[in-house]
Automatic annotation (TrEMBL):
GO molecular function ontology, one term from the record: identical protein binding
Membrane topology: Multi-pass membrane protein
Protein purpose: Involved in peroxisomal proliferation. Promotes peroxisomal duplication, aggregation or elongation without fission.
Complexes and interactors: Homooligomer. Interacts with ARC5 and FIS1B on peroxisomes.
Keywords of the record: Membrane, Peroxisome, Peroxisome biogenesis, Transmembrane, Transmembrane helix
Gene name linked to the record: LOC101501092
CC per GO annotation: peroxisomal membrane
Localization (cell): Peroxisome membrane
One Pfam family here: PEX11
Family: Belongs to the peroxin-11 family.
Protein name from the UniProt record: Peroxisomal membrane protein 11B
Statement: the UniProt record of this protein carries the keyword Membrane: yes
Amino acid sequence: MNDRVDKLVIFLAKRDGIDKLVKTFQYVSKLVNWKVEATHPDISKRFKQWEVASGLSRKAFRTGRFLTGFNGLRRNPGSTQTLRLLAVLSNAGEMVYFFFDHFLWLSRIGTLDANLAKKMSYISAFGEAVGYVFFIIADFILLKEGLKEEKQLRSSEGKEKSEENEKVIQRIRNDRIMRLMAVAANVADLIIALAEIEPNPLCNHTISLGISGLVSAWAGWYRNWPS
């Protein structure tokens, strides 16, 4: 019990930990608002306010986060030319997303002209979508490489080598789980971004947005939870 509490404290001490918790509030309230809108309008209004407040607070909390793209490129530029190119494109898209998200937030709270909100939202979502597409491609390449490496290790012989290989295989499997979680989160966020770029009945449906938001939040929750 104490171990779980300690991990929760560590998780909530992270910027991403708080973001995933508030994102859960945002999309749970979106789904509840949709569910009770016709039958309980008063309750629906309260959950709508919670959804809006959560969304705006997340934007405020992400102030300056566009700079993390530089740090991501510095720490992990990619092991091959293809992965380096994908890293540049994905982080550039994410930086555009977070940078223009600042102006979207300021326009929605009334500091900037409210008429800027739609344009800033489009640019931010477009950068977000581009970034996620390249993040997903890079993760699939690395997943494929991991499977290939695991297969080669499995074919190795010798007891001592086998024990050493098992440790490497376990590391590859752990990395695979994290990358699959990243793919799930990025696909979910891509759906949300597409709903803003090109509104359509599928992506813009409340259930689609709500489930996508929760998948992204909980996949991120898993990835950031202390081991």
